[in-house]
User: Fold this.
Amino acid sequence: MRPWRAAMTQASSMFLAKTSHDASRVTPCGTPPDIAWIFGQPISAAQIVLEVYESPSTFLAAHLINERVELSVLVDDVALPGIEAVPLVDEPLYFVQPRRKPLVRAGRSIDLPTVASVPLMLTTQVTTLRDLVDRAFAEAGVAPQIKAEASSIHTVLAMVAQGGAGTVIPHSALAWHAAAQLLRQTPIEPQIVRRATLAHSRLNRLQPAAACVHALIVSVVRELVRSRRWDGARLVAGN
Assistant:
């Protein structure tokens, strides 16, 4: 049995043993679209029904406060009132371009002035990813050539795969995308790093099913990073 499956089975069994609640209780969880894959097979195999809301991270904290979701993965929103957040991972951003017709020759890494020299397709400014990318370009003193924007990172990748533009994203956005084989990712140096946390409202106690999902997510993320299946990600100290 794979380590994450062992952890999943153990946590699920503990949940069933410690509570008389119906295991099929729906647990609403929020996540940015690019990290939604961690709610996939390892979590969905547990005896708990998930209801996953995909939304830009800028809106997810509000979903916790207004009780639309019980748990949420947040990105870089760690100091918010009323939110209890457990750090999961730090992950670097990559420059991604078409594999067959690359826009620029890239070695083991690429710098931001080079990235800024090619047409880019980026997420819209309502996303924390775009805010992070914009700040990195500003600090590097270069202006990117933004060819187009999209609110969905999946749309961004689909358009980049068609050629003519590159993008800047974390590996988690590319890992399970249908166009992944058509794209090439290159680490950006110096690194641009974002932090993902697992959060819930301090105003509302986690229900047993949600507490189980919380434990499962933390366990699965640890195993994904330690087995190097989450490329470039680093566990945060204490996780």
The longest strand covers residues 83-98. The CA atoms of residues 5 and 41 lie 10 Å apart. The radius of gyration is 19 Å. The longest helix spans residues 208-226.
